[in-house]
Amino acid sequence: MTRLIFLGPPGAGKGTQAKVLSKNCKVPHISTGDILRTAVKAKTELGQKAEGYMSAGELVPDDLVLDLIRERLGQEDAVNGWLLDGFPRNVEQAEFLNKLLDEIKQTCDFVINLEVPDNELVSRMLARGRADDKEDVIKNRLDVYREETEPLIAFYRGQERLRSVDGSRAMAEVTSELQQIVANNNNEA
Ligand code: ADP
């Protein structure tokens, strides 16, 4: 049973690491960014509403994201664990998640803060080349991160579940540190 929240700026490698751990730990990788991009591609109502915000590097409004998370965590495969990537992204979302987890009688084990310096983030995103990985949009996503998401580090530090991990190292090194964190937790349980 593993329940982790991945925090960290865009380009820090949250998605990459979450995918690997998801396989190892046999729990679903839940990425709000992936869910939203799938909705945009499929031109669903959610996708049509979200598209403009995403291409500008803004956060999609909470009312679109909160229902989606409630529904996703309620699915069968999420009963025994999950890795959340890209959610929560602001204090309102974090408070919503706390309440939701209370309601469904779950607790998150750790909040992983993946730390990577800004210059490295920008070059990683430019190399990745996703639709929203253009220089001006990247700059806005980093600004939005500082303003909206970074305060969550203090929010979760208060709850003593925060683990900071140096995400600027090689991918495999980061993975092995994350695996250790999970393994130690499971030994204690
Ligand atoms: P990255 O972390 O590299 O920016 P994501 O795939 O996590 O990439 O997010 C891409 C975009 O999807 C964000 O810029 C935002 O517009 C939208 N998004 C994803 N998750 C959320 C969320 N929890 N709340 C609001 N918007 C979100």
Cα-atom radius of gyration: 16 Å
- Give the H and E element order: EHEHHHEHEHHHEH
Strand content: 5-15%
Terminal Cα span: 9 Å
The biggest sheet amounts to: 5 strands, parallel
Structural class: alpha/beta
| Strands, total number | 5
**What global shape is seen?**
globular
Low-confidence parts, pLDDT < 50 over ≥5 residues? Answer: none
What is the count of helical runs?
9
Into which percent range does the helicity of residues fall? Answer: 55-70%
Write a concise keyword list for the protein shown above.
189 residues, alpha/beta, five-stranded parallel sheet, 9 helices, binds adenosine-5'-diphosphate
Question: Can you tell me about this structure?
Answer:
The chain is 58% helix and 13% strand. It is an alpha/beta fold. The longest helix is centred in the last third of the chain and has 18 residues, at 171-188. It is globular and about 45 Å long. The model has no long low-confidence stretch (mean pLDDT 96). The chain binds adenosine-5'-diphosphate. The site of adenosine-5'-diphosphate has 17 residues, from helix 2 and helix 3.
